[in-house]
Structure formats: C-alpha cells, structure tokens
C-alpha cells in the first residue's frame, strides 16, 4: 500500500468507526445503502458502477470520494486507461474547475500503482 | 418521438445553432470536445460513457443534460434496468436533493419508451 | 389546497409511484431513510428538523425540495415568521444566488396560506 | 421590452416586494448589499462588475440571475460580443453542464435585442 | 481549547482582520449581516439558527464553515446528540458526498469535547 | 516568488505534466481551450477575463483555481483594489460560504505581494 493510500485508509476507517458509534439510525442507513449501491450483483457490472461513483465524485469535486472510488475501481478490474477516460468525461461535464481535483486524482493513482 | 422528447430536441437544436452563430472560438471548441468525449472508439464502450455522462448530469442536477444522456444512453444500447441502476448511484452520491430530478428523468424515460 | 400546492403534490405523488415501481433496492432505501430522517421522535423536534431540511434545500437551490419542506414545516407547527427567518439564514449562507429561489418559496408560501 | 424580459421583470418586481414586506432585517440587508455591489463608483467600471455578476451566475447555473445580469450588462454598455465572450469563460470554467443555461441566456439576449 | 479548534480560531481571526483591512464596503457589510443572522433575538432561538447554519454549511461542504457552527452550536446550548442529528439531515439531503465532511466534523467535535 | 506561490506552482506544473502524459485526447483539448479562453486578443481585455475567471473560481469555491487566477490577474495588470472588488462580487453572489475561500485568497495575495 502506498503512502497516500495508507494515510487515507487509516483516517477513513478510524473516523467511520467514530461516526457509527454515534448510534444515529439515519447515518447508519446511509452507510448501509452506500455499500449496497456498489455491491456485487446488480444490472451493471461492479466495475462500471465504480466508475459511475468515481465520475459523480469528480464532478462534485470531493477528493476523498474520488480516492475511495479510485481504489475500488482498480480492485473491480478497471485499468488506468479506462479510469482516466472515465475521468475525462467528468472533466468535460464539470469544466476546468475539475482540473485541481484531477491533479490530486492522478497523483493518488500514481501512488496506488507504484505500491501495487 | 414522444412529446417531451420532441419539445426538448427542437429547442436544443434551435438554440445550439444560435449559439454557434456567435462565432466564438472558445464556445465552438467546447461543443467539439463534448462530441469527442462520447464518440465511438475509446477505452470504454460508448454505452458506458453515456451512463457516466448521465450520472454526472444527475448529481449536478441538470435536467436538460439528463434528458440528453437518457436519449443517448438508450441509443447506445442500455436498457431501462441499467439506466435506472446508474441513476440510483447518482441518487446515493447526491442525496435526496436529486429526487426531483429523478422524477423528471423517469417521466422523460417513460415518454421515450412510449414513443419507441 | 392552493393551486401551486395541488399541482406540486399531484405530480410528486404520481412520479414517486413510478420511481418505486422500478423496484430498485437502492432507490427504495433512500426513500425510506428520507422518511425516517423527518419522522416523529428523535433528538430534535420535528418542527426543527423540517426547518433544517428547508434550509438545506434552499442553499442547494432545489425548488421542489423547498416546496415540500414548506408544506411540512407548516404542518409541524412553524409559523410564517419562523419559516422566513430560517430562509434568511439560507440566504446569508448561500448568497444572492438564492434570491430567485426565495421568490418562488415566498410565492408558494402565499399560496399555502391563502388556501389554508 | 421583449416578452421574455417583461415576464421576468414583472414577476421579479412583484415577488421582491412581497419578500421585503416580510420585514426581515437580514433579508433586507442582503438586498441592500446586492445593490451596493453593482452601484456606480468603485474600483472597477460598472460594466465590468456586471460581467462578473453574469459569469458568477452562469457557473452557478442560476437562470434568473443570468437574465438579470444580461439586462444590466447591456444597460452598462457591454455589446453582444463582449457578453458572449464573458459567458464563454463561464462555459470553460463550469463545463458542458453550463450549456443548457447558455441556451436560455442566448434566447433571452435575442429577446432583449429584438425589442431594443 | 483543543488543538484543532485553536488552529482554526487563530487562522480565522488573523485572516478576517486582513480581509476587513481591505476596507471594501461590500465585504464589510456581508460580515455584518453574517453576525446579525445569528445574533440573540429573532423568531427562532439562537441554538436553532446555529443548527441551520451548520446544516447549510454541511450540505454545501464547507469544512471551515462547519467547524465554526460546531463551536457556536455548542456554545448556544446544543448537545452532541442534537448536533449529530442535525448533521444526519444534511447527510440525507446531500448524499454520500457529504461523508468525508462528516468525518472531519466528528473529528473536530471530538476535539472540542476533549478540551472542554 | 513567495512560498505559497512556489509550492502551488511546482505541484501544479508537475501534475499537469503527468496528466498530459496520459495522452487522452479529451483532456488535452480541455487544457487547450482553457489556454485559449484567457489568451491575448479577444473582445474583452485579458485583465478583465482574468477577473472573470477569478470570480467564477471563487463562487465555485476552488482554492487552486483562485490562486491561479490571482497570479494571472496581477500579471495582466490588475491592482489589489480591483482584485479585491472583483472578489467582493463573488462574496455577494456566493454568500458567506465563500468566506473561508476569501481568507485563503487574501493570504495568497499577501504572499504574492510580499515576494514581488
């Protein structure tokens, strides 16, 4: 695991635990439906659904969400060319305002690959 | 062609022409790269790229963009189940604020299918 | 029921039914958690939670969501002064871009009250 | 005055009056600082500040705000070429999601000019 | 005062001073109406208005604004359960894209409480 | 060159190179139209177009985009008073949610000037 990925994963895990300890039913259900949306099964292959989550995260400009879906998109079998092309759709739809997020996404992708 | 689709297509066509008549180089190039992003060829199948454009449009809550990608997603070979599942990803990522746009999307989809 | 409220309620009901007929598990669960979030019970009074939903909808500039929470905010016992003050917070946070949505909100509120 | 401009101006005026009748101090002050921001005087010419308001409205995808600043941009002395170029900046920054709003902006601009 | 809170407060204070030294009338008035919106008095209790500001900040995904309203929400008398429930409304309305901001909010809340 | 500016410029340069090495045609064209939009020539002076890019970036709350246009706005001949006034328009349109981004913008502007 690369450094950027490790930092992200550790913080994410720790804070998700804290959030679920709040024992708020609404929050728990949102976490649960989030898992369901990307689970195996479904009409579209998981690899496609991960790219959908990636592009949605990119146009909404959420760096941590992008990181998460970059990890999952690779695990689901998408290659770099496919991931970059998916992000290019996000860039066209979302405009140049997306570029700084694309920089951080590509940096994270490099980190993921270098540690693979 | 259904009524909703026809209204949308006519207005869209007419105003795109007017916009391109402005003869602004920046605008023309954005239109051109928009076509390129969804053209045949590429790493991902067109049917996947259309779903990416659909979900990006849905989370950014652009009804006209959603309509456009609904038309194109169907043309590219996506069935209703796949389209709805793609939109369900947008709903999870974007939250209940997406629901009114999902209503209009499903209404438009019904219109598309009834006229097919 | 006023004309604006009736038009909104009928369309909303009809399309929500269509959406749930898709039988997509993710979508159904989002609808279900949406109900839970504003249900009776909870730490904060329902009247407060409805105002939270109203302001969130206003700053995200979703007219239909605003309409829905205006109806529910009144049902939950909020008076006009309280509703308008809640919206004024949304205006400050969200800026003048919120004004057109505030216009439609006040028009809808007038419609709600005139038919009460 | 063209039809689109007249419809917009009448509704805007009527609802602004209703909003100010709420007698909410926060809302009144936001209206007042909005006027101040585009008033004569200042470091930048009014014609430039109107274009700034126009582009901000376009990338935030607020059709009514765009309409208002189109009217004011012309009054302040901007020609069509300048207005369209300003909007092209908004299109690049905001991406293709801006296109449907650009269509309505150009339609409104045509209406403004045809009635001049 | 916890470390996260102190870092935030010091930077915020220092830069607000710099901003007000610019002596721009529009900026000053926005700062002033911002104070007014959350001041004592008003139709809704301050504790409710702080939660409205918190949820608006959360759905607009502004971490610094969330931090500020977390501090003020507690000062105004809201307990952790109420604050978390308010944020759960923001999560439902804004979707999973809000989760990374919720993580940072809960981390900041822990810091606030540990130093109380 | 100040420290903030240097850090930003180095990272930006390095990652833009990485992005262009992906050899994705859509991404390359977006970069190219981005350059065109702010190039010399055009209907509006470059100094005005840079302010348009700055305000669009500010209301969309993209810190890195704001930094970039602050550098370019100064190079194109805008003074601090003009830049701050342009940002005040962004603050009015975008609301108090813009304030944290304005803090970072003014900090960056100070850094730019101190190193000039």
What's this entry about, in short?
Six copies of one chain form a homohexamer. With 116 residues, chain A is mainly alpha-helical.
Given as residue ranges, the uncertain stretches of chain A (5+ residues, pLDDT < 50) are none
Q: What average pLDDT do the residues of chain A reach?
A: 97
| Proportion of residues in helical segments of chain A | over 70%
Percent of residues in beta strands of chain A: under 5%
**First-to-last CA distance of chain A:** 7 Å
For the sheet with most strands of chain A, the description reads: none
Query: Which geometry of chain A do the CA atoms define?
Result: globular
**Chain pair sharing the greatest interface:** A-B, 31 and 31 residues
Q: Give the oligomeric state.
A: homohexamer
What sequence of helices (H) and strands (E) makes up the elements of chain A?
HHHHHH
The tally of beta strands of chain A, per DSSP, is 0
Describe this structure in words.
The structure is a homohexamer of 116-residue chains. With 116 residues, chain A is mostly helical. Chain A has six helices and no strands. Chain A has helices at residues 3-21, 25-37, 46-59, 63-75, 80-94, 99-114. In chain A, helix 3 (46-59) runs antiparallel to helix 4, helix 4 packs across helix 6 (99-114) and helix 5 (80-94) packs antiparallel against helix 6 (99-114). Chain A is globular. Chains in contact: A-B, A-C, A-D, A-E, A-F, B-C, B-D, B-E, B-F, C-D, C-E, C-F, D-E, D-F, E-F. The A-B interface holds A 33-34, 37-38, 42-44, 48-49, 51-53, 55-60, 65, 79, 81-82, 84-86, 88-90, 92-94 and B 33-34, 37-38, 42-44, 48-49, 51-53, 55-60, 65, 79, 81-82, 84-86, 88-90, 92-94.
């Amino acid at each position: 695991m690369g450094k950027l990925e490790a930092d992200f994963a550790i913080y994410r895990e720790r804070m998700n635990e804290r959030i679920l300890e709040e024992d708020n039913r609404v929050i728990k259900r949102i976490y649960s439906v989030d898992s369901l949306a990307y689970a195996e099964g479904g009409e579209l292959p998981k690899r496609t659904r991960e790219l959908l989550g990636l592009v949605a995260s990119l146009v909404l400009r959420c760096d941590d969400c992008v990181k998460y879906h970059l990890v999952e998109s690779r695990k689901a079998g998408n290659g770099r060319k496919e991931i970059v092309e998916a992000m290019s759709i996000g860039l066209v739809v979302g405009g140049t305002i997306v570029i700084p997020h694309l920089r951080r996404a590509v940096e994270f992708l490099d980190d993921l690959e270098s540690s693979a």
